[in-house]
Amino acid sequence: MSSVATTCALDVPVAIKRIQTIHKHASDVTKCCFSKRFHLAVGSSDRTVSVWEWRSGHGFEEKSYSPLTHHKYMVTGVQFDGDANILATSSLDGSTTLCDVETGRVVHTFVQNSCGGIRSSCFVANYKYFVSAGDDGTICVWDMFRRVLVRTITAHEEAISMVCCSTDSRIMLTGDTTGVAKVWPVSELTDTCGKSTPLYVLYDCHDMGVNSADISTVTAITNKGKVYSALTCGNDNLVKIWQLTLWKKNTSSHQCAVEMVQSLKGHSSTVTSVCFCGGDATLFATTSMDKTTRIWRMVESNNAVALQVLEGHTRYVNTCGFSQDGLLFATGSNDKSVIIWDVKGHLDLNVKLHDSSEDLKSAVNIRRDIQIEVTFRKKVMFTNAVNSCDFSNECKYLVAAGGDKTIRVWNVDKSEHIEECKDSPLYAHHYSVQQMIISPCSSYMASCSLDGMTVIWDLNTLKQKGSLHTEYGGARSCSFSGNSELIAVACNNEIVFVWKIETLQLVAKLCGNDEDVTCVSFSPDSRYLMSGCVEGHFRIWSVHPKKHIISETSIIVQDKAHEIGITSAHFVIKNPSRKSHSILMLTGGSDAVVKIWRLMNDRIDFKMKFVGHGSDITCVKFPRHITTFLASTSLDKTARIWQTKTGDCLHVIDPKDAILTCCSFSSNNKILATGSLDKAMFLWNLPLDDEDATSIRKSVGNYSNNPQNINLSRYNIYNNTVNSTMNTHPKRTG
User: What burial class does residue 686 get, using C-beta atoms within 10 Å of its C-beta: 0-12 exposed, 13-18 middle, 19+ buried?
Assistant: First the structure.
């Protein structure tokens, strides 16, 4: 049958056209999904997954390793991660398999806790977690980086037929075969100690079962809260549009209101899937057992109309999906085929499609003749993840702490030989240590933990000076003031606590943040205190450095400093010898972007952003008293050295499969320490130019993200033994 696009309801020109049909599978096509790099994954009842890649002049061509044949029963889910490096496939055999997109190699397999069949699955929390659900009514939450089961939640009394998550990872929808739908807070689902109760329950979402749902990428902030648009469909032949409003009930929980906006009739049989168009939030599509696909548009906030009916399949249409830029649209059917549609009506098989984010990366790395020689120095093993590390000012001490609840301290002599102190490791916390810092005066160090306690240590004696307890939840981040007289602590709520070090007296309790605070940082002159939150906003308070008086309200509020959330911040003074010196602030976010801001006279201005990392930024740091370059670490398993004047990425540090969590420069800026989830801390030699103490020595050569063409000297310290290996990289250690 030839494909037909007919116009309905509105007098608009037909735009969508069919450009390719894929016949590959031996049975029904159950799921299809695009990656941001224009891969296409197709799942089928024949137990296989085919993977395709767009090639100009040919359209979608099958990858050499395709099809994937690791499942034993029908494939019910295919999803690419944000970087299109991993393809997750789920099946009624009760397993989710993670595959390398380029090679097809199976990286890992998650098996449903009850071994029951998986009917729906999705990535959540910016691809940090994966949720699978199915026949037994339970939700399994998996950590994508540690590859472990975080928790299992009994969510529905019957089989769960659909799960989907909002792009900001705030809410998740689930629906079952009886027609019940539930709204869940993602932060609680991914927290091992979080609640397992839904925010809202719709007992009559659809008669006879909810088949599919999607949440729009576009949200609105109102005086009532954050507003989401959602679609659902079911066996009652209906498509429903919902408005979900989310607001904070108190410091630790949210509330949600759900209102049906419109019930859409048009399909003559069961509606099998719904999806919003990523490139146009007012456009969405629905598929049905009536063999058609309908394209709809929201013409008003409470009114959607059918634009077109796509006909081309000879049997039930099971699934559909838009590419992220909204250029392509795919439909899969019981007729065993996948049809690729051109949404705008002006593409053909000769068009060149590419990830637009690559343009941003290439724009940053314009100067490809710049490269720095970073050499590997040491690798120190821990028994769990390393969350934080720091050097003292005179480079006498190096400290680190993490998931094993311990704090380790090393002495660093003048020849930069590093040896662990005899009293190390130190024990004080009951849960993971989130941050470990040394005061600017190098007399104290502080450790804050998820147990809600911040401990102040005498760095010279390694004895506790005292402990500070927050009123709510765990302590996430801490920062000493530049004069080492105050310490600020951010907790699992919107409050920042500030104490005086000498007396351990509470100086201020700063409120005003709308969301959970993720990081805090004092400016070097002790005049400003910054807090960043999970929504991507930051606030700055004014501080009197001598009287220890902090403004009751923030003097600066920067909305949407980062698109998703702020994860790290760091200050440095530019030109401190001048009277009119300015302060630079560095921020990193879950949007994989690093930004520099200029703070002067109680005003903040955006200065520059650095794009190149492929996932969340975990830490950002300026060198000591230098503003010409900076370092950042990311969940993409790399650290990067950036030049602040041009925005060039001078070097990519790749310790091979180690997800980096933190970084710190030594006082002479010749050593960079990086911590990782891989139970290791890496030390790197940086070629600081002796003639110019503010610049890194550069060498001419082809820019490369692959450090294999750099000679590395490797020294592993483990159980007090030292091994030397030339020209190799550190291997990942369990």
Answer: buried
